[in-house]
């Protein structure tokens, strides 16, 4: 992204439309003015940092906090990007299964921008830790609230991308989640059985 | 549009400021906490006291623990050997909470302790809830014994028992087919009465183990065997009575025992104490294993095999 583009503030449109109009967000992504692909990866990096801060505000911190903020941040960012890539790929495969045109680059960009509202988690949660009013409850409450917001943006993005209705795009979004859930459940069962076998042998 | 963009940038800037404030806030809390903590937790090193814990029935159960680690008497001996090799260990406190156990396992621990005592490593026994029979036997190998007022100790003696279910077998018409190589091979069989010869054979064995018990206590406590025999009739006693009978040296707590060990080993009062610590993984897998094997609380006692000769206080 050139300095001129940064100065023009056109990049701010992506963040603005993520919140105000997710369908318009997709149209802007498609226009590539500027190309938001690299920019979109800043969001998971910031979200991970804010997540670490929010969790740290909950507990009694030690000097280990600085390691969490440095090495921990890098590791969790890599893990977050890995999750986004895997999930976006599965969404793309599911969309193709439903007869839609695949475009992993666009799906990845939508997925990254979808999590943008989670940046508001820290200020919202911080307020309740400062006044010490049920921070644990509000941590869970805001997590659910912002997750729903994320889903709404992602599903609308898919809907706009493939020109399909909201219901069908929600199915495309949810199938990978069910698939991952079933796979993890089976892995857990296998691990428990293996663990019991090992311990009781 | 330009205005909206500027508002968005302002929001992003505000978020960045909030993140910085949060970092500073957490940093200040950490600094405040570290200032309020006077004592720094540094790793302990240098000459000190090692702790060995003897919990539950004493028996040789082999390397059946989590990760194939030794359990029972073998674990206690392994811990003692570990401390023996450590040049920092000048004294050992044996924390006993046991009603005793099998003769061989108890004697193995006793012999190991005696070996350490001969190497001039100070041994102090600290008795918990129960340190009776075999539990007392191993304590007697120590230079000094500390017990609580309410510790159950004593029960000096040997026992073997088996139920006689002959009448029950007769009632249900059950007969056992026994093919044996010698007349004593099914000694302690539950389906018939015990013969006089069998009884005298077992009694002889019990008497020999009992005499060994008395001899070892007398050696460890530096007493005459004849002074011990009058109270070595299987009676249990609390710490106070045990002190009167000279079976222990002092009434006190685990902490008192550690202080005494430091004093006897000419160590400073703040000398380090090296307790035995299982790794969290060992504890976790040990607990899970016990749950799956049904060894929870009294569970193991339900499957207790009584056909053993034991230095044990029958609770």
Provide a descriptive summary of the structure in words:
The complex is a heterodimer of chains A (201) and B (315). Chain A is mainly α and 201 residues long. In chain A, 82% of the residues lie in helices and 0% in strands. Chain A is built from 10 helices and no strands. In chain B, helix 2 links the parallel strand 1 and strand 2 (89-98). In chain B, strands 1, 2, 4, 5, 6, 7, 8 and 9 form an 8-stranded mixed beta sheet that branches. A two-stranded antiparallel ribbon of chain B has the order 3-10. With 315 residues, chain B is an alpha/beta fold. The A-B interface holds A 9-10, 12-13, 15-16, 49-50, 53, 56-57, 60-63, 65, 69, 119-120, 122-123, 126, 195-196, 199-200 and B 2, 4-6, 8-9, 12, 15, 18-19, 22-23, 25-27, 29-30, 33-34, 66, 285, 288-289, 292-293.
């Amino acid at each position: 992204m050139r300095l001129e583009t940064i100065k023009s503030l056109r990049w701010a449109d992506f963040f603005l439309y993520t919140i105000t109009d997710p369908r318009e967000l997709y149209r802007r992504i498609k226009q590539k003015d500027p190309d938001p692909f690299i920019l979109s990866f800043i969001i998971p990096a910031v979200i991970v940092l804010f997540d670490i801060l929010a969790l740290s505000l909950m507990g009694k911190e030690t000097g280990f906090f600085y390691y969490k903020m440095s090495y921990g941040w890098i590791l969790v960012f890599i893990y977050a990007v890995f999750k986004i890539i895997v999930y976006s790929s599965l969404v793309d495969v599911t969309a193709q299964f439903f007869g839609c045109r695949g475009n992993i680059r666009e799906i990845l960009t939508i997925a990254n921008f979808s999590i943008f509202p989670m940046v508001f988690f820290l200020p919202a949660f911080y307020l309740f830790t400062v006044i010490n009013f049920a921070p644990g409850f509000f941590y869970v409450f805001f997590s659910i609230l912002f997750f729903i917001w994320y889903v709404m943006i992602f599903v609308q993005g898919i809907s706009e991308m493939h020109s399909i209705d909201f219901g069908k795009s929600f199915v495309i979004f949810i199938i990978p989640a069910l698939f991952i859930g079933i796979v993890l459940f089976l892995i857990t069962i296998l691990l428990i059985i293996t663990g019991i076998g090992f311990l009781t042998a | 549009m330009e205005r909206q963009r500027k508002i968005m940038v302002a929001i992003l800037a505000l978020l960045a400021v909030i993140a910085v404030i949060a970092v500073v806030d957490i940093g200040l809390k950490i600094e405040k906490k570290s200032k309020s903590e006077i004592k720094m937790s540094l790793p302990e090193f240098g000459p000190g006291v090692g702790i060995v814990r003897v919990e539950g029935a004493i028996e040789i159960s082999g390397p059946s623990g989590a990760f194939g680690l030794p359990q029972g008497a073998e674990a206690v001996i392994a811990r003692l050997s570990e401390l023996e090799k450590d040049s920092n260990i000048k004294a050992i406190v044996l924390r006993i909470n046991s009603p005793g156990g099998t003769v061989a396992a108890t004697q193995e621990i006793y012999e190991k302790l005696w070996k350490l005592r001969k190497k001039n490593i100070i041994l102090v026994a600290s008795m918990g809830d129960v340190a009776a029979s075999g539990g007392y036997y191993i304590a007697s190998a120590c230079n000094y014994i500390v017990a609580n007022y309410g510790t159950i100790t004593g029960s000096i003696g040997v026992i073997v028992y088996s139920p006689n279910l002959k009448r029950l077998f007769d009632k249900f018409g059950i007969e056992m087919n026994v093919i044996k190589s010698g007349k004593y091979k099914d000694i302690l069989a539950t389906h018939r009465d015990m013969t006089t010869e069998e009884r005298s054979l077992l009694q002889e064995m019990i008497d020999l183990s009992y005499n060994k018990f008395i001899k070892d206590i007398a050696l460890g406590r530096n007493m005459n065997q004849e002074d011990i025999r009058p109270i070595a009739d299987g009676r249990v006693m609390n710490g106070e009575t045990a002190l009167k009978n000279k079976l222990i040296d002092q009434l006190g707590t685990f902490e008192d025992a550690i202080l005494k060990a430091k004093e006897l080993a000419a160590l400073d009062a703040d000398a380090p104490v090296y307790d035995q610590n299982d790794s969290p993984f060992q504890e976790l897998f040990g607990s899970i294993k016990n749950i799956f094997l049904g060894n929870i609380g009294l569970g193991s006692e339900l499957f207790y095999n009584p056909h053993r000769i034991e230095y044990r206080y029958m609770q």
